[in-house]
Amino acid sequence: MLLCWWQGLAENTQRWQAQFTLWQQAARQAQQLDQRYNDAQKQQQALRNQAELRQQKQQRLAEWQAFMLQLESDIPDDAWLSSLTHQQGTLRLDGLSLRPEATQLLHHRLRKSRFFQIWLPGALKKSAEGPYGFTLITRKAEGDSHEP
């Protein structure tokens, strides 16, 4: 009888050990799945961030394109640009005009731009050959977190 009892106890112990082993394996698998899930969430967030940056870059490019098209139409017929420089939020336009009024007209038109703040007129010089040289400078608009 004692032998049967020991035998039953051994079988129960084996079953419990097998059950415990299965629980341990399930716990390890759950930890692995949890880690994979966390990794997938991090990767998803990184992809979202990349997509947002790409979208912002495309938006800035579209705004620059719109600004350049507007600039092209804002330049009077008797004025032309010799250089356009953009650095750290500052845009500088240098150009020539046949008459000073053309520079004033360009300045007036550019002040309506939604991309930049006040355009500051720079030098207006008459060259020996006839055209007036001009400079206009501006900074990006205050509420604008990015530059066009």
Automatic annotation (TrEMBL):
Keyword vocabulary terms for this entry: Coiled coil
Coiled coil, from the record: 23-60
InterPro entries listed in its UniProt record: Extracell_DNA_Util/SecSys_Comp, PilN
Keyword Hydrolase listed: no
Pfam family name, one: PilN
Protein name: Fimbrial assembly protein
